[in-house]
Write a structure and sequence with these properties.
The chain is of the alpha+beta class and about 100 residues long. It contains 3 helices and 3 strands; from the N terminus they run αββαβα.
């Protein structure tokens, strides 16, 4: 009997779609992403690339960002990778807090 966690399933779907678009992007976009991490693009106008642990995907705060990304972009990410529409300073603060967990 499998237990389904909606937030994690949603995150997996976003990552699956993101990887399809990432394959279409230039090969340099995947350089420097170690196993167990995912690259995301953050920013409202100018996007900056961050590499975060996949463990963040199960965190409620990060899942809120993923939901905002889905609302704004659907599964068509303009950078070819997972794009999160929030200010860079907010993202850095959030990931710093998640690193402390």
């Amino acid at each position: 009997m499998a237990i389904r966690v909606p937030g994690i399933m949603h995150a997996k779907q976003i990552l699956r779609q993101s990887s399809l678009f990432a394959n279409k992007a230039s090969s340099t976009s995947s350089v420097g992403v170690p196993k167990g991490y995912v690259a995301v693009y953050v920013g409202e106008s100018e996007r900056k690339r961050f590499v975060v642990p996949i463990s963040f995907l199960s965190q409620p705060l990060f899942q809120e960002l993923l939901s905002k990304a889905e609302e704004e972009f659907g599964y068509n990410y303009p950078t070819g990778g997972l794009t999160i529409p929030c200010r860079e300073d907010i993202f850095v603060d959030l990931t710093s807090r998640l690193n402390g967990l």
